[in-house]
Amino acid sequence: MGKHIYTTAAFAVFSALTFASCLPAETAPPSPTATAAAPDLTFGGATSASDLNGTTIQVNWSAGTGQAITGYKVYEVNSDSSLSTVGNVSSTSTSYVIAGLTAGTFHSYIVRAVDSAGDTDGNGVTVSALAYAGITGVSSATTTGLVVTVSRSNAASAVHIYCAPSRSGVYSLVGSVGGEAGLATLTGLYSGTTYTCYALGVGPTGVEDSNTATVTGQTTSFSSTLYQGVLAVSAYGAAPVAPTGTPTSAQVTVTWKGFTSARSTTQYALVRTSVGNTLDMTTTTACTAASVTSCLVCTVTGSGAQGCTDTNVGPSPSTYDYAVTEMPGGWVEETPVAGDSVYRITVEIPPENMVLVHRDAANAEICALMNKQSDPFNHQRCAYTGLGATPYNSNPLGSPLNLTTGYYDFGYDLFVDRWTAACNWTASACVGAGSGNNDCWGSSVPGMTATAGTVYYSVNNASCWVNLTGTSSGWQQTAANTLSSDGVAIISPTYFAKMYTVQPSTTKRKPPITAVDQISAYAVCNSVSDPDYGAKRLLRRREYIAAAAPPWMPGEPGARSDSATLTLQSYSANASPAYGCNAYGHSTTEQNGTYNGVGYNTTQNTFTTGASFASTFNSNDLSGGTGGGQGIFVLGSIETSKCVSRFGLQDYVGNVEQWVSDQLASCNETAQTCIGGVSNLDGGNIDFNGFEFDGVQAPGAMTGGQVAGTYGYTNSWQISNVLTMLDTSNGGFGAANFSVPFGMALVGTDSGNALSIINGAFPATKLHAAMTIVNTNSGAFTRSMAVGGAWNFQFPNNDRFTSDFGQADTGEGNWGPYNGFRCAVPAQ
């Protein structure tokens, strides 16, 4: 018998409980046939009894119509057929709840109408219910089933389990066990699917109870055990005037590694949601630029790497989470409920004219170069303890990242300018310039009067100038001597920002900013701030190595062989494909002949007509004249539109040598050694700090066996030419090992982390004729690093691993018409 009884009438609950607790058990009142004297109370008796939660049953009835009814009595039918009163309620009540029952027990009830004299009607209508708690949990899962726990009941003849997959919400009977089983193994379910289940006990009368308990559980997905992570991610910001055939609007391409055991019939679904929102892999709603909830990007079929492009994205700073799962039987598997964060591929839409270097994709490529296994559940990082393993932070003033040690990890997502920084010369503002149309360009340094903030481009020495005072003598070049004697910048950030652009144009062609020192390059970048991500900066060498990677991994978009990459990067007149990188062969073709219908004076290396050059800066034109800059292509030129890295950087090598913020702190001319330091521009760039060109760690020092022979004292060397590197008898450098993340040939082994070039652990073909320049005997000044090679390199040495520590950061050295830069800003 229940110890706690109450009606559903709110006010009567407490009084009913109090009253019922004092009621004695009764003997059965006279049966209907023996109670002819019972009052004529018109009442149909109980209509139903239902289980509420395993220890509570509700008895229901319809109100009687007899005028004499003043209340109702609720009886429980005992095992000997006697009745025990469990409740007395008013005439307005139509239900009564009996609480405190023993779970798993079966109960029957009779309800009778009562008059003012306390007499009851004689109905014997009996209703029954099983007090059953139902389903209580999920204990385990497989790809095709769940094991659930259910309440035990010796009064139940069976327990029926019903489940509904999240994609449809339609329940069906999926299993049945005995009343005392306690566990039920459910089979035949969809893999990678969340189910909501309930269990109903079947009482002695064959009727299921009505408890409302439910649990959710997810079957194991094939995706969770077969997922191999991303292979490549590219994201472009809008660039309306990008070269023909290249992305002009914002878009994202996600390419993932083929799942383990994938076949030609393996199906995948790629789903997107706004960052942090719920991922519903079962959605069939197509994505739009306005979508913030889960939407379907694509479904694809095949073995090996697969991917698709999402063009329905919003502008920066839109950020999305993508996820990919298998469709093993035509249904889409969900990501695991317990931890879907490791399956989320977070992609930030870049600002205009920028691209995204994605952490996971960078890790996948660098780890593959080192022949190391990537971890798909930890951003594709791989075990590694050598040089360049992890960054200190992502920004000069940023907090330490404190990444887990023992791994190579790029560390963060990074936006990078799609093109090298260009001189944003002013139109129609310089009287007498621009072939008579007053555009601010010319063959000499500027000397005309112009408004402060006017920008001028000098064709002959490929330099960019800004007017600071509004006078004819107020012009300042973006190059050396950008600090006054008291250390104050001559050019303010406002004017630096006016000089900079990465926006191509079809009517105002813009040449790269060259003849610039490292400090000025950093200042220009730092003068430009994105409203959502902050001030830009120079890339770090470690970042550039990842950002400038050519597409080579099998299955990634545009993948090409090492020999094809070498051909593209060291462009020659008959190169295929055309529109390759601007190396010496490319620019020589432009200077000394006719290319795409544009004629050149082969004596003076100038364009035959002013109209084909500076008045319009045609897309297939070079940006310089008779001076040293004649070999540089303008911003977004169609002529180098195939020279694109796996992340979308055009002119990723060649055209102009690009400053990064890495520096050597000092060199010793006597010992022929140099040592790296923390960048004095970017305090977060500590990658070269303590690194030594000393003949032990890296080439350097006469004591390392070098002599001033054919190759000089640690002057320049082609890394892939192993015999040259080892030929110490003729001035070689004995560097037979290579650090991939650091991008340096080493004499030492970096505690076993460097790969041997000589035995092929790191194939020389991956270096694409890269070279390194470190002038140990040219002065004790701080040396700044430029990377990638330039248009005037005489040999096919343009490559992401090409580095040049040959010049000072400012005040010394020669910044020729081949030193440029591009800017970056962390996306996280």
Annotate the secondary structure layout:
Elements: E1 4-7, H1 12-20, E2 46-51, E3 57-61, E4 71-77, E5 83-90, E6 95-99, E7 106-114, E8 127-130, E9 135-141, E10 146-150, E11 158-165, E12 172-177, E13 183-186, E14 194-202, E15 215-218, H2 222-226, E16 230-236, E17 251-256, E18 267-274, E19 295-301, E20 306-310, E21 319-326, E22 345-348, E23 354-357, H3 359-369, E24 382-383, E25 407-408, E26 414-417, E27 422-423, E28 441-442, E29 455-458, E30 463-467, E31 475-477, H4 493-499, E32 500-501, H5 518-526, E33 529-530, E34 534-535, E35 537-538, H6 541-547, H7 562-569, H8 584-592, E36 600-601, E37 606-607, E38 657-668, E39 673-677, E40 692-693, E41 716-718, H9 722-726, E42 737-739, E43 744-746, E44 755-756, E45 771-773, E46 783-787, E47 803-808, E48 819-821, E49 823-826
Parallel strand pairs: 28-29, 38-48, 45-47
Antiparallel strand pairs: 1-6, 2-3, 3-6, 4-5, 4-7, 7-8, 9-10, 10-13, 11-12, 11-14, 14-15, 16-17, 17-20, 18-19, 18-21, 21-22, 23-26, 24-25, 26-49, 27-32, 29-30, 30-31, 33-34, 35-49, 36-37, 38-39, 38-46, 39-40, 41-45, 42-43, 42-44, 46-47
Helix pairs in contact: 4-5
